[in-house]
Amino acid sequence: MSEVSASKSKLPPEQEDIRAKCFHPSGMFVEFPIEDVETSIPARFQKMVEMYPDRLAVKMGERAVTYAELNQAANRIAWSIFDKRGAGIEPVLLICEHGLDGIAACFGILKAGKILVVIDPSFPFERVGYMMTNSQAGAIVTDRNNVSLAKTLAKNDVQVIDIHALGSNLPEMNLGLQVSPNTVTQIVYSSGSTGLPKGIFFNHRRTLHDARVDVNATHICPDDRIIQFRNLSFSAGTKGLFRALLSGAGFFPYDINNVGLSELVEFLTREKITIFSPGISIFRHFVSHLNGKENFPSIRLIILGCEAISRADIEAYKKVFSDDCLWLHHLSSSEAGLVCQYFIDKYTELDNTSAPVGYPVDGKEICLRDESGKEVDCDQEGEIVVRSRYLSSGYWRNSELTSRRFLADPGSGNERLYLTGDLGRIRPDGYLVYLGRKDFVVKIRGYTVEIGEVERTLMEHPEVKEVGVVALDRERAEKYLAAYIVPRDKPAPTIDELRSFLKQKLPEYMVPSAFMFLESLPLTNGKLDRRALPKPSDKRPALSQSYVAIRSDVEFRLAKVWEDAINIRPIGIHDNFFDLGGHSLAAMRLVSRVIQEFQLELPLKSLFQSPTIAEMAVVIAENQDKALGEEALDRLLRDLESVSEEEAQFLLAEDSMSTGRGDRNE
Fold first, then answer.
1. All domains of the chain in start order, with CATH
2. Cβ neighbours of residue 128 under 8 Å, at least 6 residues apart?
3. What's the chain's average pLDDT?
4. Which of 598, 529, 544, 586 is CA-nearest to residue 562?
5. Angle 131-134-135 (CA atoms, 0-180°, nearest 5)?
6. pTM, whole model, 2 decimals?
């Protein structure tokens, strides 16, 4: 790479000074040595078990296990897998509820020398089935809640292992398999531009390197207690898991499905959480509705990144958290792992509206290239290219895409280049400024979505002739997807029909919030001109349900609240909120406004169970005796407004939004 590339050299003094303060007060930090990167995840985990056998490993709800206990549970699962599948390397699906059992199963699969493929059981059956087929898994590890799904997916000689039905004679001792650092450790599926999820796979060396950089940069120690929001099916989920359990720290999955964000303040304080990694959407809603009296003395570090961070976010951090609390912003991806870090403290002043993603971490080097592949100079825009030996192995069973995105480094035998598709600019002092995506990959409610997958799925609908999908901005700095449809014939399919079709194939966050029907798509030089697509209308869309006007004062008041909340007029009393473009976060906000309008304590799930004005009017009538005082009303409204889109998807039962499986919520 050229002399203008950014590499891991000595950090500027202000970054060194902040990083030097990033320690737990107990001072128990033990460095993660480079030698451990050349082992395996089970070997590193076993080292933690031997060093801290009686330390808390995982706590979720009322259940808590030590490192020794977690190791024993993982060993039993590993022996079961080994007994049924032998020592060969092969993918094993994990379909399990978010919690302690799933964590033990993660380590059990890896201890058995297998490749971990975590599947979120709430995904549509068709998507889960594709992942099963594409991964070519030899076994499915599951729990009692998902064993029926696992048996439906299992074909040929695929074996199903129910961790809640393991034999009592299984050993709790280590299996003792020697796993090479070159062995594939995990396949993570994400949105794919071809319209199908793409599997990204990496080996133990890559995962351990990421963990080492994380642990050593932030000095994670056994006295740290790390909260986790993300499901383990996402790369960020397992990254957080290994960040904690490969350093001897305590891992605290936060079950927002049962607990909700209303309990988060108390949870952070009660459990003395020290490292808070919420994702930017959670962070914004959390801090914006605090009453100013909270104090989080235990939180020493906030980790955020991979999305644009504003000056307002930094100011909120400075206002809410203690003077000893630091902020770590980073850039990472499933393919490249952890790439850059940037530390911020209460005295950091930013010279622009977004925080830089920082300086390359140890083992990673960055350069920028123009469209011709030529490296650009400092302060010029270009595609971010990462050079390292610690990259993803590529795309599972997709050598063509792997060869396009991962290149051999002409100057080295062990390192490769990864073309990120992200745009950036390297400043003269070496730090990277992130400028966004080069292609049509966007962030929707914290999730990465390739627009091509949404477009291709819509094109599978028999009544859709052409389609274009774009990401648009709405209030609160959130993005949403808008789909533009050219129908094959008239009348066009209704919006609720299209939504129902998509929800059978895509996760909820990939379903567009707005649909428009056009005679033709705008083209420039034969290609879709996305900038020329009109802004979605605020008029009532075409639904299967005919418009029915309001009939009572309560329905009139509800209609006004609904129209103001989702900016659609008019709304009929039998129109389904989600067919109008509503999503989980909008539902929570609407319930909050209805509670404020009628000053009644309504069930949180009321909108999902009664998603029309007519049905909600009945709920209000049934709850007339639950009037709220001013203090209780304010507290409830703060709790509701603090929920983010991502948490609302888990917090509320989404039976009305799920059509992929009839026996569980999405």
1. 30-217 (3.40.50.12780), 441-532 (3.30.300.30), 553-657 (1.10.1200.10)
2. 95, 119, 121, 149, 153
3. 86
4. 586
5. 80
6. 0.75
